[in-house]
Amino acid sequence: MTEDAVVDEELLTIGAFAARSRLSAKALRLYDRLGLLAPAHVDEVSGYRYYRAGQVDQARLVALLRQLDMPLARIADVVAAGGAEGADLLAAYWAGVETRVAAQRTLAEYLRGRLSGRSSEMYEKFVVETVEVPAQVLLTETRHTLADELPAWIGASLGRLEAAARECGGVVGAPFVIYHSEVSMESDGPAEACMPVADEAAARAWAEARGRTWETKVRVEPARRLAYTRISKAQVAHPQILAAFEAVEAWMRDKGLEYDGPCREVYFADWDAAGPSDPVCDVAFPVR
Q1: Which of 14, 40, 41, 86 is placed for a possible disulfide with 49 were both Cys, Cβ 3.0 to 4.6 Å?
Q2: What is the pLDDT of residues 140-174, one digit of tens each?
Q3: Predicted pLDDT at 223
């Protein structure tokens, strides 16, 4: 196909189309490879790409979506859907962005407090106490997980363990999650979900028969003394929960107490039924 024929069919060279759509030729080639914006014609001999003038709106849409820092795969979904469905996909993406920015804003304020030496002020709202916890038979499930996957995994794993506990004499204490190493977006723990049950023999039989699929184990947690502070459902969110853990650690230092195991979150209330200000969780450290 000659260039004259291309013009007759209202096709644009990649350079002309790039200028009209305000995208670079390099970007157009990338979007072609990713399936975001395919040329209307590619010359078999020269490899030149040609675009129809009617593709300009789609090209500009891609460029504008990129200004929202939308991943290319999400852009492909929005462009392919178009219309009201595409608008709904965009709305869902932007809601996620706003949620993330709100969390980052809270984290930035928290870090400002630490850097400016106001940590003690942040810790004052947390009341720290100790409690003696007897030895417990536990059904446990352990997972390496990053922070963004953690809440979903905690809910799912504790749900599985609670269902299993019905065959192990029932639940006899508040479930909890132990963090054997840091869980963040760079560190994946592991974390261990724990469900106290009544019947050790039944628990071991259950785990042997069915638990391997979930990497479920049974162990006896020794009696512990915990230093803890009680927090609300709203405070469980990151980074408020970090301040709670740090408040407990600061209190431990003041009291001359030593660590006697990894930190944990103890969930003693119905999460779904609780309101933002309702107490739902103890953040705790074993101490001696």
Answers
A1: 14
A2: 999 999 988 999 999 999 999 999 999 999 999 99
A3: 96
Rounded to whole angstroms, how far apart are CA atoms 162 and 22?
57
Residue 81 structural domain = 3-88
d(CA 273, CA 286): 29
Of 62, 88, 114, the residue at which a domain comes to its end is 88
| Co-location of 161 and 242 in the same domain | yes
What CA–CA distances, in Å, run from 71 to 79, 90, 152, 158, 252?
12, 12, 23, 33, 45
Mean pLDDT by 10 residues, the chain (288 residues): 50 86 84 82 85 87 88 88 93 89 79 76 87 96 91 93 94 97 90 97 87 75 97 85 91 96 96 92 97
Of the candidates 144, 156, 152, the residue with the CA atom closest to the CA atom of residue 184: 144
φ/ψ (deg, to 5) at 80: -65, -40
H or E stretch covering 208: helix 200-210
CA distance 123 to 260: 22
Please identify, among 60, 88, 116, the residue that sits at the C-terminal boundary of a domain. 88
Q: Which residues pair with 76 in a beta bridge?
A: none
119 in any annotated domain: no
In a domain, 102, yes or no: no
Q: Identify whether the C-beta of residue 238 lies closer than 8 Å to the C-beta of residue 107.
A: yes
Chain segment 40-76, per-residue pLDDT in tens: 888 888 888 889 888 888 888 888 898 899 988 899 8
> In whole angstroms, what is the distance from residue 57 CA to residue 59 CA?
5
d(CA 185, CA 240): 17
- The reported pLDDT for the residue numbered 214 is 57
| 138 and 281 share one domain | yes
Q: Based on the domain organization, do 150 and 248 belong to the same domain?
A: yes
| 18 shares its domain with 69 | yes
